[in-house]
């Protein structure tokens, strides 16, 4: 992948890759790479990613996919998995500035995380991207929603640039997560863009699990589900792809701050 020439336009995608296990039961990270290459996004939020140290590069799914696509990446570990780790990953054509992995787990449930990556756009502006994979229980998501909109995560005082919040929210009705995020962010109506309101599962969607929220400094030009023969087989989700334009001046890199729980990325 090459860097786009238009510095005012950004393509962002969210994709639950289901540990790279397709509907045929085969684990094939290279198939996910083909799907993502077709999507051609500048920033990609991935959920359900596995990293295993091995002499087989594809076992480290985050590193393998980023390398194959020629992108920078950061991984947010949420739990251990079969001798490796499991969590969310963020791939970016642009340089990474700082990263945080917030624990949004609730007691007695599977560990969950919100991976924040600050990526440097052309011209030096920062974009804060929050990659989220929420729980499957109703009461679990209510607790996670309150954590997300707190000053510790989405409303942290260190945030200086526009925010995009996206991922697999596991919320198919307008629960507390949807209501809270709609109060603070722009929430596109899928029916206006897709002629449907459901995204999951790929072959026959009947639930709306994948969402994208964003600040008004970004204008949504286009929202699509990447539906091809390959993507229908590669995972149980389809990539949700958003094309944005920057509509307002954003702070330059030098104005950004970094908190104690965030790590700056080495140049």
Shape label: globular
Number of strands: 12
- Named CATH architecture of the domain at 9-95 and 167-248: 4-Layer Sandwich
What is the N-to-C order of secondary-structure elements (H for helix, E for strand)?
EHEHEEEEEHEHHEEHEE
Instruction: Sketch the major β-sheet.
Output: 6 strands, mixed
Helix content: 10-25%
Q: Provide mean pLDDT, rounded.
A: 88
CATH-assigned fold name of the domain at 9-95 and 167-248: Deoxyribonuclease I, Chain A
Instruction: Enumerate the spans where pLDDT stays under 50 for 5 or more consecutive residues.
Output: 1-5
Strand order of the largest sheet: 3-4-2-1-11-10
CATH C-level name of the domain at 9-95 and 167-248: Alpha Beta
Structural class: alpha+beta
Radius of gyration: 17 Å
Per DSSP, the total helix count is 6
Percent strand equals 25-35%
- The CATH homologous superfamily of the domain at 9-95 and 167-248 is termed Endonuclease/exonuclease/phosphatase
Q: First CA to last CA: what distance?
A: 20 Å
Description:
Mean pLDDT is 88; it is low at 1-5. Helix 1 (29-39) packs across helix 2. This protein has a domain at 9-95 and 167-248: Deoxyribonuclease I, Chain A (4-Layer Sandwich). It has 6 helices and 12 strands. It is globular. Strands 3-4-2-1-11-10 form a 6-stranded mixed β-sheet. The chain has 267 residues and is an alpha+beta fold. Helix content is 19%, strand content 33%. 42% of the residues are buried.
């Amino acid at each position: 992948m090459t860097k786009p020439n238009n510095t005012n336009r950004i393509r962002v995608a969210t994709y639950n890759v289901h540990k790279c296990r397709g509907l045929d039961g085969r684990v094939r990270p290279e198939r996910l790479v083909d799907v993502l290459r077709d999507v051609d996004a500048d920033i990609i939020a991935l959920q359900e990613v596995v990293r295993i140290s091995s002499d087989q590069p594809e076992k480290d799914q985050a590193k393998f996919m980023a390398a194959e696509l020629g992108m920078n990446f950061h991984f947010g570990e949420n739990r251990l998995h079969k001798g490796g780790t499991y969590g969310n990953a963020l791939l970016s054509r642009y340089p990474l500035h700082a990263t945080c992995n917030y624990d949004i787990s609730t007691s007695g449930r599977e560990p969950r995380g919100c991976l924040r990556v600050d990526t440097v756009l052309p011209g030096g502006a920062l974009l804060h991207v929050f990659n989220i994979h929420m729980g499957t229980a109703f009461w679990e998501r209510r607790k996670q929603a309150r954590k997300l909109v707190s000053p510790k995560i989405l409303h942290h005082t260190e945030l200086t640039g526009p925010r995009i919040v996206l991922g697999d929210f596991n919320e198919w009705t307008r629960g507390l997560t949807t209501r809270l995020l709609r109060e603070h962010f722009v929430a596109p109506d899928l029916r206006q863009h897709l002629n449907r309101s459901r995204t999951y599962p790929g072959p026959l969607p009947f639930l709306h699990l994948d969402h994208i929220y964003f600040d008004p400094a970004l204008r949504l030009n286009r929202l699509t589900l990447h539906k091809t023969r390959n993507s229908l087989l590669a995972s149980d989700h389809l990539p949700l792809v958003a094309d944005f334009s920057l509509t307002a001046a954003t702070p330059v890199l030098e104005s950004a701050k970094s908190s104690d729980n965030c790590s700056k990325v080495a140049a």
